[in-house]
Write a structure and sequence with these properties.
Shape: elongated
Largest sheet: none
Structural class: mainly alpha
Order of helices and strands: HH
Distance between the termini: 32 Å
Helix content: 55-70%
């Protein structure tokens, strides 16, 4: 199924609804970040870590 791209379209939202959506986005983003930290801590405790050189790490980024 293809994606439909709409360019030049705008949406008008009341300021209160925009504020709520913006806060919701921030909250979800924050929760995702916290879940990633939690998963990383679990992997560290379980010994599931990968050691790489600094050069390999930088090249991977």
């Amino acid at each position: 199924m293809g994606k439909t791209v709409i360019e030049g379209e705008t949406v008008t939202l009341p300021k209160e609804e925009y504020r709520i959506l913006k806060e919701l986005f921030r909250t979800v983003k924050r929760q995702n970040f916290l879940l990633r930290i939690d998963e990383a801590e679990k992997n560290l405790r379980a010994g599931r870590v990968k050691r790489v050189s600094v050069k390999e790490f930088i090249d991977g980024v």
